[in-house]
Amino acid sequence: MASELGYEIAEPVAVSANGAGTDTEAEAPTEEATKEVLFEEDDPSALQPRAPIVTVMGHVDHGKTSLLDAIRTTEVAAGERGGITQHIGASEVDKDGRRVVFLDTPGHEAFTAMRARGARVTDIAVVVVAADDGVMPQTLEAIHHARAARVPIIIALNKIDKPDANPDRVKTELSEANVIVEEYGGDTPLVPVSAKTRVGLDELLEMILLVADLQELTANPRRNAVGTIVEAQLDKGRGPVATAIVQTGTLRVGDVIVVGETFGKVRALENSAGKRVTKAGPSSAVVVLGLAEVPQAGDILRVVADEREARTMVEARRAQTAARGGEGSGRATLEDLYRQIQTGQAKELRIILKADVSGSLGAITHALEQLSSDEVRINVLHEAAGDITDNDIMLATASNAIVVGFNTKITETARRAADAEGVDVRTYDIIYKLTDDIDAALKGLLEPEIVEVIEGRAEVRQVIRIGKGTVIAGSYVTDGRIVRGGARVWRGGKVVATDRIESLRRFRDDVREVATGFECGIGLASFHDVQEGDVIECYTTQTISRAVPA
Ligand code: GDP
User: Fold this and answer.
1) Confidence check: pLDDT of 27 > 70
2) How far apart are CA 207 and CA 189, in angstroms?
3) CA 129 to centroid of ligand 1, rounded, Å
4) DSSP E strands: which ranges in 343-491?
């Protein structure tokens, strides 16, 4: 599979640190595309340590925004930059002379949307859990999203200033979600914090740096920059304004860049404190001016040799998008996955499971996991009670997973997203049907459904016999249209023959179809006993992939 960048997908790269991704064998192929680009030409001796890029996720109201704000004001208080920085979608914090880059859009939606577009920006996920509220549905979602991306997790146990804070309960709940904190013998760090009283902020930053050290994050500052857009908008005075995270290389004023399907020459760069700079090295957040159009969050930025190369690349990408029908990128359906499994390209079937009540989740997951074999493993990436939402579709897109719903429905926007992205969504109301279908898919037995579509009917008004055995039914189309294909002959409310329309003529011309209200001559393939007053009903068959949900 070639990526949007035109690179072949490499073998999955091993990812270290604290258990992230222990439940996923291979990474979403889209991410490999970014990695491939990032490291394609880097000779190890050119690599230098770089700052970690962090995303803050967690349940609503658990304090993501407050925590980010508190961390940022630490920086302001330190007098490094002073004043309130403009919102650019990312910020940089200094801790003991080392930088940490935070993506400012809290929540996993942005994180997953970017992953879905092939961008891998985040090195560490800070999952915020309110100590008084505990592990909630979006906490689990955040954990699953981080794991699917194989990004190490740090738990920020927030609101510990509250009298009803119950850290032990949270730790136990985390264990139930297979996140075992260090104190309980696992490898996920947990830092108690309070965004309100500012307790633990230093410790959290220290932990981020420690986890970053374990990952040995490096990049080559002496090469053409590659980065990812995290935010972009049209500014009245300045034109398209995009915030990029430079991941490797150094971006300079004057560089020619290709971003998604647009390009331009870097006219100016501003750092996260709003100051003009002439260059931006690895792991820096920088506002880029000079693009011709507004790119999308998740678009990859790449420095190229000159405008000609840029133009060629953009044209090729646009053509590719057009060829794909504008959207989506042919995500896996169960049938595709089966093929990939057969050819050894895929070793696991990833599933996002939604059910009406949480009680059924465990049972279904268990039943599904029983289907795992030596060749292919069933991996339920995320399970939760509730409707199938956009988030599930995004996670599926980013992780090359299918979405399975049990006694649950899909929201309208999620349906549209699934159609656009080509995500396979299946809903069931009987568990064994669900498991049978998945089992069948794994064994390659999932036959497409063949449906018959009645195209139209014609009344026989005159029977014409020409030569030996050739019978033409001179007919009048009463409804729909008559086309060549399957046909049934009705007489007195009964089907007297099932046949095929072999010839179809209007006057002397062979025609492909005849509409209501017109006369035509119909020649059937084998039934020669057609009579005046018979009704010929014609139908076509359509193969419906069973990927289409019931
Ligand atoms: P988000 O939805 O996760 O971004 O949560 P917010 O940052 O908006 O915080 C939700 C609420 O919790 C707000 O009323 C905050 O003031 C409050 N809050 C956030 N962090 C703390 C904390 O450490 N202690 C206390 N007591 N309240 C907090």
Assistant:
1) no
2) 8
3) 11
4) 348-355, 377-385, 402-406, 425-428, 449-466, 470-483, 485-491
* Cα–ligand 1 centroid distance for 159 (angstroms): 7
* Nearest residue by C-alpha to atom 9 in ligand 1: 63
Cα 424 to ligand 1 centroid, rounded to whole Å: 37
- Amino acid of residue 293: E
Buried/exposed code over 78-108 (b: 16+ C-beta within 10 A; e: otherwise): eeebeeebeebbbbbbebeebbbbbbbbbbb
Give the mean pLDDT of 508-516.
Answer: 89
Average pLDDT, the chain: 81
Is the pLDDT at 342 greater than 90? The verdict is no
Instruction: Output the pLDDT for position 41.
Output: 52
* CA proximity to 496, closest of 504, 487, 508: 487
Quote the pLDDT of residue 79. 42
Distance between CA atoms of residues 168 and 73, nearest Å: 29
Give the strand pairing for 519-524 and 494-506: antiparallel
Element (H, E) at 285: strand 284-291
Contact 136, 369 (CB under 8 A): no
Tell the residue nearest (CA) to atom 11 of ligand 1: 61
Residues with CB under 6 A from ligand 1: 58, 60-66, 106, 158-159, 161-162, 194-196
Q: Which of 55, 66, 128 to mutate to test the pocket of ligand 1 (most atoms within 8 A of CB)?
A: 66
Among all chains, which residue has been given the structure tokens 């060749």? Answer: 375
